[in-house]
Amino acid sequence: MSLTFWKPALAVLVICASGSPSMAQESKSAPPKTIAYNASPTPYFNEHAADVARIYDGFFFTVGSWDEGAGAALGLNSTPPSPTEWKNLVRENLRHLNEAGASANLLGVHFGDSEEWPSPETLLAPEYGDKMAERFGAIAREAKELAFHGLSIDVEYPYPRYALEHPIYTYDGYTAEDLRAAARKEGRAIMNAVLGSFPDAVVFVLPGSLWTRTLARDFQLAMLEVMAERDAPGGFHLGAERSYCLLDPVSQVAIPREGDLSVEALVRDADVRDYWRRRCSVAPGVWPAHMVETGGKDYPARAWAEELADLKQQMHILRNVTKRFIWSFSGQPLWYRHSPEIEAQYGLKKQTYQGIDELVAGWHSILADKSRDVEPRIQPCIDAVADYDQGKIDGAGLCSRLGTPGEWYVLGPLDNPNVRAAYSAPKAFLGAINADNVYRGRDGAVRWTALRNLEPLGHLRMTAFADWCATDNASAQWVATVQAEKNTKAFVHVGWDDGVAVYLNHTLVLDRLAYPERGHGMLYLDKYNFEEKAPIAIPSGKSRLTVICVNGKGNWGVNLRIADENACPISGITFPPLREGSWESIAAEY
Fold first, then answer.
1. SS3 of 345, please?
2. Are the C-beta atoms of 222 and 191 separated by less than 8 Å?
3. Which CATH code, of 3.30.1760, 3.90.550, 3.20.20, 1.10.8, is assigned to 2-393?
4. What is the pTM of this model?
5. Exposed, middle or buried, 221 (CB in 10 Å: 0-12/13-18/19+)?
6. Tell me: the pLDDT tens digits for 89-135?
7. Which overall architecture, per CATH, does domain 398-588 show?
């Protein structure tokens, strides 16, 4: 069987129509702006704007849901909008912050987890879509009048209902494609309304991933399409949360291009891809209070000096590769140093984190220094990102330079061999990778599928492959090519949920198919992208790399990088992309 693989146009360095440099060029000369999530209007900002501007470039001022919250805070329940105490105070805050240089302020709204959207009634009723568009147009109009830099739209909270198999969707008189079309239509209507009121608005989307459940993906991609059609100057920015954890340095390098590669994989329209490269970005989020705020009992607690040293390294790396914005999250505000005088004057209480004085002082020092120095071993990864930005390599090439395959063959969903092995096809990966062969999978017939898993952190997106459908008690086999210029000793670095095995050719190099005692898989060490590493001897030439991923319940996936002992990519190890031709001839190369 002959298969033709879609080959994307390479990313190119683009000069904006105005003659100004693209964001990739701008990021080399000026550090990205850092925005704090979140803030409420307070007289403190009026009188301490200069102090704030030394550490932050702006704030997310959140008002709650797009309907009730925005209606109350912005006075949108009357025509014309009525004055409110919130608007009066935030207007003064923004005037002082903008004058001090902290001008990257966003008006934030969200979709509530217990509200009615999305649902069949809200997606399929034209009048509800009209209501949403009218309200978002009004929100944007108020944001522009108040002198905000743009909007932040948090799509996270109703995430279960973005899955097409959610029980709220009965499919009585409509289809899954009807729901998808409605989500796209409403995404377009909302963005047209926003840009109609605020043409140059910066638009953030939280939590900032296009590889998400179906309806959320369609909704966001439609918003991006409208911005591209208008060539909206503010750009569409994905507020990523992968960087919340203090991952290894190479993963931190990868995060600010994760969205670029998602666009490369998901968007076929060349004009939209071009717009993304010129105007849009991933905005990585940093969680400075993570050690004391995550709530995970297994998170490794340590001295603040060590935690702050890793935060400093993280910020230095992100400033090298982030195009436009970094944002920071904390459940309690970290933008002021508490004193009895400040509390008495502004009502700003002392934060309750353990070690708060050391945390605030250290975090403010990291924010103020704007440094970008990195260890020499990280520089080749930063250079790889620059090559991607300049069109010298594509997304698969960037993944390869960062030590992970960007293109795979996948077989699944299969049975979970820990529960029922009957339909787990245990030896399929040892044979020919042939799209004509049919295997008995967990739910019926399955075949090898070519997958462009453009994920520079090395995450094998099983939920994306299976589109979040029936993930419980399943397994899958992933096969890619690894090529070595010479016999090379390396390490395979792996994180997983719930079980994993890794083979090089026919040799088992790591076996964790049995569930870990803690039962958390790759999430139990919250800090780490990779839990374990195993030595691997890669022979000269091409070899077959196989990953078997097993899941018991809920989300599943594997993180994988082939690198040195410190998880840094090795020169001379690459992962050739899938090539055109029969799968039998590709298999014969091994």
1. helix
2. yes
3. 3.20.20
4. 0.92
5. buried
6. 999 999 999 999 999 999 999 999 999 999 999 999 999 999 999 99
7. Sandwich (2.60)
